[in-house]
Write a structure and sequence with these properties.
There is one protein chain. The chain is elongated. Helix 3 runs antiparallel to helix 6. The protein has one domain: nmb1532 protein domain like (Four Helix Bundle (Hemerythrin (Met), subunit A)). It is mainly α. Helix content is about 75%, strand content about 0%.
């Protein structure tokens, strides 16, 4: 995929409000509200949507867990037991999913529909930004988990730092997942799984 420097700054992940109209050409023919009834939704499209729903759900679980801790509904021990394994799963699954997309699916999709190539470049650029946010999320999470052994002020400061990083990551991911679906699902519905090796 293309170099991140080639992406219009207005289309960078934390700035954009959605994909530009020229990348929504297939979405006009296959609007979201019609996806579940389309005969080509089973297979690859369904798998894609399920994975994205899992990421949304896990992001929500992590957000709720940190909120529960900050509001005193869970103590440090309970929080760590809930949080650490879910965070590790979330970060690992997201990284693996993006690697498969970048190295396998995005090139196939871009070859299948050249009008959308710029969209896949944008999504690839998103993955680099999300990867950086994942690293920062992991660092602040580890610092927070270590701070659970400290005094109340240390814990609160670390919890606030992690909550900020988590909110940023979840917001980035929400925008990215929606835009990725708007680009990919209509393409799969239009062509069917066979064109993409399904």
């Amino acid at each position: 995929m293309s170099n991140r420097a080639e992406i219009d700054p207005a289309l960078l992940l934390e700035r954009r409000q959605g994909l530009p109209d020229d990348l929504r050409v297939l979405l006009e023919n296959y609007p979201r509200e019609d996806w579940s009834a389309h005969p080509n939704v089973h297979g690859l499209a369904s798998m894609w949507l399920q994975r994205h729903d899992m990421f949304r759900e896990l992001g929500g679980i992590l957000t709720a867990a940190i909120g529960d801790y900050r509001e005193g509904r869970t103590d440090a021990r309970q929080f760590a037991q809930i949080f650490a394994p879910r965070l590790n799963f979330f970060l690992g699954q997201l990284d693996g999913h993006h690697n498969i997309e970048d190295h396998h699916y995005f090139p196939i999709f871009a070859r299948a529909e050249s009008r959308l190539t710029r969209g896949f470049d944008i999504l690839d650029s998103d993955h680099h930004l999300i990867h950086d946010a994942l690293d920062m999320n992991s660092q602040t999470a580890n610092a927070f988990l270590q701070a659970l052994q400290g005094d109340g002020d240390t814990q609160r400061y670390a919890a606030d730092a992690y909550a900020d990083q988590n909110a940023r990551l979840v917001a980035m991911l929400a925008r990215h997942l929606d835009d990725e679906e708007d680009l990919i699902i209509p393409l799969i519905l239009d062509r069917g799984d066979r064109e993409f090796g399904g």
